[in-house]
Each structure stands twice: as C-alpha cells, then as structure tokens.
Amino acid sequence: MNGPASASTARLCRLDLWLNPVFDQIIGATPGVALSVLPARGDDARTLAGLRTAHAYHVSAAKDELPRQWFVTAELIAQCPDLVCVSSGGAGYDTIDVAACTAAGIAVVNQAGGNAASVAEHTYALLLAVQRRVVESHQRLRHDTGFSREDLMGHEIHGGVLGLVGLGQIGTRVARIAQGFGLRVLAHDPLLDADTIRSRGAEPAGLDALLAESDFVSLHCPLDASTRGLFGARAFAAMKPGAVFISTARGGIHDEAALYDALRGGHLRGAGLDVWQQEPPGRDAPLLGLANVVATFHTAGVTHEARRNVARSSATQLATMLRGERPPQLINPEAWPAAAQRIANLK
C-alpha cells in the first residue's frame, strides 16, 4: 500500500488475488495515487470499507475466482459513491455491469490485446492437439502396450478452411498465423465491414456460410446478449461433417450439452476447449470423458508474458484516467464526459 491519502490523492483499490507485480510498481510510482490491496476473502467488512471510499477499482475478470460480492454491480456501485473508474484485469469484463457503470458516470476499461499473442498461440495448440491426437498418444504411451502408430493416425491442418467467429485483436492474430499453415480463412464479425475483414487477413462470410464451409471453427467473440448460446444444436448441426470446434472465447457462447451430442454422434471430429460454463468444469463433465476433446482451464491467456502485459495495461489506463485523460481501451465511451468531470472534481 502507498502512503496515506491526502484530500487530493486518488484512492485505488484492488483485491489480493494474484496479479503480476508490475501493476503495483506502476501505481506505486504514480504521483497522487494511493493503492490499497484488500482481501478477496475472509474480511468482507474491511474490503467493503475500502471500496466505499475508492475512486478507482482494478477488478479481476475471472468470474469463477472473484467472490460475487466484489463484482461491479449496481448494488456495489450504490455503496461506492466516489467510484469514477473501473479496470477489468483482462480482455473480458464478465465481472462488471457496464450499463450500471455508465448510468453512474463510471468509466470502464478492459485490456484487449494484452493477451492476444498468447490466446492466438493457444488456439493452434488446441487445434493441432485435436487433429494430431496428441493427448490420446500421450495417454496410450503412458498406460497401454501393443498398439501401432497407425492406431493414432491424425490429420493435417494444411490446406483446410479455418472459420473465425470474431475478428478482433485475437482473431486477427489467428488469421495471420493461418497463412503459415496454408489455411484459407473465413471470418464472421458483424461489427466489421467486408474491407476491414479482408485487411485483417480473412474472407468475409455470413455465419451460415462459414459453418458450412469451414473444416475448423474457432470462436474469438465476446460473451454478450448477441452471442450467449450462439453455438447450440442448430449451429453444430450446420457445421461441416468432420469439422473441429475450438473455443478460447468465453463459456456460455457454446452449449456444452449440444456440443457433446455433436461429438458423441460423430458429426464433429473433435473439439478443443479452453472455456467452460463453470470454471473449472467438474471432473465428471461429459465433455471431459471424450477422447476427441482436448481441454484446458481457461489458460489461453495465462502466460507470464500475457499476465505482465495485462497488468501493465490496467495500471497504465487507471493512471491515465486519474490524470483526467481518456484511456485507449474505453468500453463505455458514452460515460467518459461524466466520468471526466467527476475525475476533475477530485483535484
């Protein structure tokens, strides 16, 4: 924690969940900002008391790691009258009610792009593991004897069609890497025009066409009202027979039961999943029992490099806002005029 706050010192809070040390280093070197690290568990009264006087809040983006009472909801905001800016500790912001923040004049930022390289790499780790049956091979070498290499024969990805749902910073990196694998890339992103999609290394396609033509479908879209449940039984049935499904996006975009049925029934060849409705999924989750599913624990963006980038981005954006300057990754730009005025009133 920095020294005691004066009347003109901005009070910034974060919880004691793991965070790369660069965050505290940057904030500690920022004049006029006092950092408080509050317990995520075990002393709710102390944490609430700290947040009630906070001007800025760095909040974890991990919905299943952050206790619900510390999500940025309308209820919490009502108890934090001085709060003027909130920073999500990731590209996602599932733990923040952005509409409630906007109504209260609170600016919200995320760290889009901070983990883009890591997530793009992980996308191919999952895809190659499924296509080349890497996990199956590892397990059989550990536990079985008397099998041949041909029993573990996989498939190349070279020459296939990769369909990307979402072409933001992560999707764009995935599209660029695809060139090295000799993949043709289709992309569906309702927020981008056709020329922008082409400039990012993909051919624009409607969702139905993408599903019908792609050998591999990879999700890189946010979880919101328009994407929740987007991939259910109908979408999986519309995918090319023998296709592979990959998601490093968010749990809740795909229906896990429908995906299980599509895999178990043989319509899809396999799936690589980094995200889950519940994280981590229970050990008895049906998808974990399928040999053609490669599963990871929402670790696509969890590398030393990505966590450092995200922590640096969050600290830098919070310091920027507390100086009264507009940050680069503003989620609710309509709230900035009110937030900027509130920040000016702190000085």
Overview of the structural elements:
This protein is α/β, with parallel strands linked by helices and 347 residues long. The chain folds into 2 domains: 10-110 and 304-346, NAD(P)-binding Rossmann-like Domain (Rossmann fold, 3-Layer(aba) Sandwich), CATH 3.40.50; 115-295, 3-Layer(aba) Sandwich (Rossmann fold). It has 13 helices and 12 strands. The protein has helices spanning 22-28, 44-52, 74-78, 98-103, 116-131, 134-143, 169-180, 194-199, 207-213, 233-238, 256-264, 304-322, 336-344, and strands spanning 10-15, 33-38, 56-59, 85-88, 107-109, 161-165, 184-188, 203-204, 216-219, 243-247, 268-273, 293-295. Helix 1 (22-28) runs parallel beside helix 12 (304-322) and helix 5 (116-131) packs across helix 7. The chain is elongated, with a radius of gyration of 22 Å. 43% of the residues are buried.
Average pLDDT metric: 94
Q: What fraction of the residues are assigned to beta strands by DSSP? A: 15-25%
Q: In whole angstroms, how far apart are the ends?
A: 21 Å
The SSE order reads: EHEHEHEHEHHEHEHEHEHEHEEHH
Q: Spans with pLDDT under 50 lasting ≥5 residues? A: 1-7
What's this entry about, in short?
This protein is of the alpha/beta class and 347 residues long.
How would the blueprint of this fold be written?
Elements: E1 10-15, H1 22-28, E2 33-38, H2 44-52, E3 56-59, H3 74-78, E4 85-88, H4 98-103, E5 107-109, H5 116-131, H6 134-143, E6 161-165, H7 169-180, E7 184-188, H8 194-199, E8 203-204, H9 207-213, E9 216-219, H10 233-238, E10 243-247, H11 256-264, E11 268-273, E12 293-295, H12 304-322, H13 336-344
Parallel strand pairs: 1-2, 1-3, 3-4, 4-5, 6-7, 6-9, 7-8, 9-10, 10-11, 11-12
Helix pairs in contact: 1-12, 5-7
Family: Belongs to the D-isomer specific 2-hydroxyacid dehydrogenase family.
GO molecular function, one term: S-sulfolactate dehydrogenase activity
EC number: 1.1.1.310
